Amino acid sequence: MDFTLSQEHQMAVEMVRNFTHKEVIPIIKEWDRKQEMAPHILPRMAELGILGINIPVRYGGQGFDYITLGLVCEELEYADTTLRVVMSVHMGLNSMAVLQWGTEEQKQRFLTPQAKGEKYACFGLTEPGAGSDVAGMTSTAIKKGDHYVLNGEKMWISLASKAHHALVVARTDLNAADPHDGLSAFLVELDSKGVTTGDIHGKMGVRAGSTGWLAFQDVKVPAENLLGQEGEGFRIAMSCLDNGRYTVGSGATGLIRASLDASVKYANDRKAFGREIGKFQLVQQKIAYMVQSYEMARLLYLKSGWMKNQGMRNTKETSLAKWFATDASFDAAAEAIQVHGAYGYSDEYDVERYLRNSKGAVIYEGTSEIHQLMQAGYALGYRADGDLRCELPAYDADFWQAEG
Amino acid sequence: MKIVVCVKQVPDTAAKVAVEGGKVTWGDAPLVINPWDEYAVEAALQAAEKGGGTVTAISLGAEEAKEALKHALAMGCAEAVLVNDPALAELDTQGASRVLAAAIRKVGGVDLAVFGKQAIDGDSGVTAAQTARVLGWPAATLLASLSLESGTLKGERAMEEGRQRVEAALPAVASIVKDYGEPRYPSFMGIRKAAKAEIPAWTLADLGIPTPAAAVMWKEIMNPPARQITNEMITGSSPEEIANKLADKIMEEKVL
pLDDT tens across A270-303, in order? Predict the structure, then answer.
C-alpha cells in the first residue's frame, strides 16, 4: 500500500492553494457579508482549468485523475465552502454524469464547453416538496414528437442563476408501477424558452455562493438531450450523487483542516492565566479531536477517489466519507469557535463562517440520517449495489491525457 | 528568440530560519522556488510569448533544486537544466555567477538571461549583475517592465529615487522586480508536463570550467541577539480616549 501522492497531485494542490490564498481568502469575508458571489470567482476557476480538472483533455478538461478532484475540493473548501460547491454541481453532479452516461454527441455539446469553463453547469433534482424522497418529485417531461415538454420547479439548486446547463430529473412515465422507474434525466440549456431562475437569500451559510431555484414552464427539450435512457433517471441521479458526495466529503475535510489551523494559531497566540491557552488540556483535547477527524476524513475520501480511479463501485465508501466528513466538519467548526471564545462568535474571525458553512453539507446530497440508513443497510445485508448500464469510467492516464 | 531564466530553490518565506551549530537551518519547512524568481519567469515567458521564442530555466543547486525547475516548467518554460556538482557546495555569489554564465553559454545562442532581483535566502542581490559581467553583456537590473524590439532590450528600472528608462543591446542580462506584475500560476497542463519531465543535470566538467574560487568566506554565522519586547494593551471606553492615551504614551516615550 502506497500513501504517497504523486508529484502531479502535490503540484495541483499547491497551485490551487496559491490561487485561494491570493484571490479568495483575502476577500471572502466581505462577500459572505454581502451574501453575493464574488464576480471573479467563477471566471477565474474556469480560466485556471479547475472547472475541468478531472475530465479527459479530449473533452476540454485537464486530464487529471479523480483523486486530484478530491484534493482540489479540499483546498477550495479550506478557503470557502462556496468554491467547493461550484465543483460539486458543475463537476460532480453534472459533468461527470455526462462523462459517465452521455453519448459522444452530448459530450461534445455539453461536457466539452463545461470542462473548458465556457459554460457552467448545475443539477436539478431536489424540489420544493421532494428532497430525500426523490421518487416523490412532481416535475414532468412528456414526450411530444422529437422533443419533451418539461414542467416543474427545482429548489435549493447551487449555481441556478449562474449556470448555462442543468442536468434535470423529471417524471416521463406517470403510470410506472415503481415511481423510481418513471424518472428520466435531461441536459437542459437554461436559455431555453420557458426557463426562469432565481436566487435564494437568507441562508445560514454558503452566503458567498449562489443557491437558487429553476422553474420550467412548457420548456421544449430536444429528444437528443435525454441523458441515458427513459426510466434511468433515478439510477443516473444516484450515480451523480456518488460523485457529488465525493466532492462534498473531500471539501468538508478541508473545512476541518481550516478549523484546526485557525484553532492552533489562536491557541498559540491567545494567553489566559499567564500562558498560551494551547497549554490547557481541554483546549488540547479539542485540537486532538480535530486532528483525528481530519486524518480520518482524508483517508476515507482518498479511498473513494482511489476506487473511482480503479473503476470500482464506491457508493458505500463515498457515502461513508461524506457522512463522516460533514458531521466532523460541523463538530470541528463548533469546537473552533469554543477555542476562540467570544472572538469566535464574531465575524472578526473566520470560524463562525466555518460553522455556518458546515451545516448545509450535513443536509444536502444525502442527510446524515440517509447515510446512516445506507450504512446500516449495507451492514445488515438489506442493501446491495447492482451493476449500472454505464459505470463511471476508470481513470486511464493515456486516454485522459491524449489530445483526442 | 532564446531566453534563459535563472531560478533558485530557497526555504519557504514562512520558515523560521535559525543558526544551529554554526549552520543555517530552517527545520522541516518546505523548499520553494525563490519568490522573486517567479517574477523573472513571468517576464521571461511574456517576452518569449511576444517575440516567438522559448524559455529555458536553469538552477544551480543540489537534486532538490529540481523542484524549483519543475515549478518553472509548470509555469510554461520549455526546458530546464540543473547544474549540480559536489564542488559547488560552498559558492559565493561571484562563483555562482561564473557557473551560471558557463551554463548560459552552454545553452548557446541566448538573447536574454533573466533573474529575480535577489534570492530571499542570501539576499545579496548581485548575481544578475555579476553574471552579466562574466558574460560581458549589459545588465539591466531592477526592471519593472521589459520589452525586446529588433535586438534591443527596453525597460524601466524601479528604484527608490524613481523610474529610469534603459535600453541595452542584446544579448543582455535583466533582473526583475515585483512591480513587473503578478506571476502566473502553474497551469494544470504545465504541471502534468513538469511532473513527467526528465531534467538533465550538468556538472562543472560538462560546463568545461574549474571550481570557482570563493572570494567571500562565511567565517561565522550567528543568530541575531534576542530582543526584549514588552506589549501593552491600551484600553479605554471610547476610540477618542484610547487615541488620547496612545498619544500621551507616544510623547512620554519620546517616540515623537
Answer: 999 999 999 999 999 999 999 999 999 999 999 9
Render pLDDT for A329-366 as a digit per residue (tens, 0 to 9). 999 999 999 999 999 999 999 999 999 999 999 999 99
| Cβ separation A11–B186 shorter than 8 A | yes
Instruction: Tell me the CB-side half-sphere exposure of residue A308, using CA atoms within 13 A.
Output: 29
**From the list B185, B189, B195, which residue is nearest A19 (CB)?**
B185
Say what the alpha-carbon torsion angle A138, A141, A143, A148 is, to the nearest 10 degrees. Answer: 160
Domain B2-207 has CATH 3.40.50.620: yes
CB contact under 8 A, A62 and B70: no
Residue in B with minimal Cα distance to A60: B189
Name the catalytic one among A365, A369, A391, A403: A365
> Chain A: residue nearest B187 by CA?
A48
Active site residue A365: yes
Amino acid identity for residue A215 in this structure: A
Domains and CATH numbers, chain A: 7-120 (1.10.540.10), 122-231 (2.40.110.10), 235-399 (1.20.140.10)
Say whether residue B187 is in contact with chain A using an 8 A CB cutoff. Answer: yes
C-alpha cell at A321: 466519507
What does the block give as the cell for B213?
A: 574560487
Under an 8 A CB cutoff, do B187 and A12 touch?
Answer: no
ipTM higher than the 0.85 cut: yes
* B194 lies within 8 A of chain A by CB: yes
Using CA atoms, how far residue A50 sits from A60, A62, B188, B193, B216, in Å, is: 11, 8, 8, 17, 47
Residue extents of the structural domains in chain B: 2-207
